[in-house]
TrEMBL record:
<keyword id="KW-1133">Transmembrane helix</keyword>
<protein>
    <recommendedName>
        <fullName>Rod shape-determining protein MreD</fullName>
    </recommendedName>
</protein>
<feature type="transmembrane region" description="Helical">
    <location>
        <begin position="137"/>
        <end position="159"/>
    </location>
</feature>
<feature type="transmembrane region" description="Helical">
    <location>
        <begin position="34"/>
        <end position="57"/>
    </location>
</feature>
<feature type="transmembrane region" description="Helical">
    <location>
        <begin position="113"/>
        <end position="131"/>
    </location>
</feature>
<keyword id="KW-0812">Transmembrane</keyword>
<keyword id="KW-0472">Membrane</keyword>
Length: 170
């Protein structure tokens, strides 16, 4: 029960930060950081697939509700939760999945964590920005994906540092 409350607090903190701080950052109409996906990125490695999907959808739906983007965040977050097990297996290794725990730089190494976070953020941003701008702005969409991803990964790295020495488990 205590672990549930810890994850609930992290979830609420990230959603509130997203809504009131990071949704207000729009550098030149190109950089829009989405840090709430850190909740999905930092879930325990042994989280069952069905729970990942529910948490991914719920996280995106909560941000959709607060920011008025009907379904856009929910679709992208659910997609991210769907691909997470494959990304974890490819980038972090199957041994870590069996051990459980949360993926942090202290646990998997800074390089591996940054690669993992970067791939996860890119996998979120690609469908998000394409669906957001269906008019097809080509290079502008690509620029938004890359710059927003770089900015988001940097923020997620620094926000995850308090978890480096804390091993939350479900």
């Amino acid at each position: 029960m205590i672990r549930f409350l810890e994850y609930l607090a992290v979830f609420l903190l990230l959603v509130v930060l997203q809504e009131f701080v990071f949704d207000n950052i729009n550098l030149g109409g190109v950089v829009n950081p989405y840090i709430y996906i850190m909740f999905i990125i930092m879930l325990p490695l042994d989280t069952p697939g069905w729970l990942l999907l529910l948490l991914g959808f719920g996280t995106g739906a909560a941000v959709d509700f607060m920011s008025g983007t009907p379904g856009l965040q929910a679709v992208s977050s659910t997609w991210l939760a769907f691909v997470r097990p494959a990304v974890v297996g490819l980038l972090l290794g199957k041994d870590l999945v069996y051990e459980g725990g949360i993926p942090t730089a202290g646990r998997v190494g800074t390089g591996k964590f940054l690669r993992y976070a970067a791939v996860m953020v890119l996998l979120f941003n690609i469908p998000f920005f394409i669906l957001e701008d269906l008019s097809g702005g080509g290079w502008i969409i690509a620029l938004r994906i890359v710059l927003s991803s770089v900015f988001s990964v940097g923020i997620i790295y620094f926000l995850h540092l308090p978890f480096v020495h804390t091993q939350l488990k479900v």
